UniProtKB/TrEMBL annotation:
Organism name: Crossiella cryophila
Signal peptide (from-to): none
Claim: Flavoprotein is one of the keywords in the record: yes
Protein name: Alkylation response protein AidB-like acyl-CoA dehydrogenase
InterPro entries: Acyl-CoA_Oxase/DH_mid-dom_sf (IPR046373), AcylCo_DH-like_C (IPR036250), AcylCoA_DH/ox_N_sf (IPR037069), AcylCoA_DH/oxidase_NM_dom_sf (IPR009100)
GO molecular function: acyl-CoA dehydrogenase activity; flavin adenine dinucleotide binding
Amino acid sequence: MRLLDQERQTCERFLPGLDGKLAAIPLLDLESPGGPGIELFRAAGGPGLLIPAKHNGGGATAVDAVRVTRALAARSPSLAVATTMHQFSLASLVALAEHSTGFEWMLLDGVATDQRLMASGFAEGRTAQGILAPTMKGVWDGTNWRISGRKQPCSLSRSMDLLTASVALEQPDGSTVTAIAMIPAASPGISVTPFWGSWALAGAESDTLILEDVEVHPDLIVELRTGLDGELDDLQTLGFVWFELLVTACYLGTVMALVERVLDAEKGTPHERLGLAMAVEGAALTLDGAARNLDEGDAGNDGLARALITRFTIADTIRSTAATAVELLGGMAYIRSSEVAYLSAAVHAIGFHPPSRHSSADALLGWFSGRPVVLD
């Protein structure tokens, strides 16, 4: 058993041939804007990974999903981050379809059959803002909603077929209701402009998405509510748990790629190498455990707290492990190729996704005191 074997075997089971194709392409080519990773993912059936088999999808569980995501991240962090935005949005839609007689099942079938990718217009790029805080506004025209706003950065902005976005719907009395809108990417009024200036994760297509008076049928709008104590409703909470687990898998897979290089090159002492391998494998077991809890129904407010704890705990492991791995690989590995520096830089982005550790502190302390998690 080698490091990442379980992840790559799971990836091969659900997305046959993808890992081998990614492995044959230089890392920095995959990480460049316009790189081939996203289309290889689409061709391998990635968009349908989480869709139930009855809707022509892969039927992957949460445990399967975090393992596949780690496998993707070890080959291409950008691809893992970009497709995480698709998967967590899709997971919410799958849950909605299970409890609805509406159009959702047709959309799921279309995503799986036609391999459509869904971009996320949620607030994942703002460290102090809740993930479902509205990024856009909707005005009723008597027949349809007219959506305007922008999302930056928005991963998959240039490859998306659909956009899922948090929207503040303006009510006749002047109040607003938060909703999720599902918008075809080809809708008139949608445009993309450059935004991402960093070389790290440039392949995720995280540019600015602009919506100007985009017409959206009311059947493509799902209103969200909060409980009496301000906690998120079931659908929001489920999406949030999925996001936290998948985004953690992205950066854990990335640091596992660094550790794999240390092991392959036999750098450092056996004790040092073992320490790195145990750290990342232990984090993977922890993440799999949280994902297994989700599969078993732990998707409520307590599950959200546990997902946040999992992410913040593993984030500490990721940062310390990356620093040690780079040191053990040595200066010549750092100098001769940009790949070590790239992977090292990419892992630090785990701190840029919401909610931030600082903004979550009061909510988690409240949870440990018996109160529900309430995120602003």
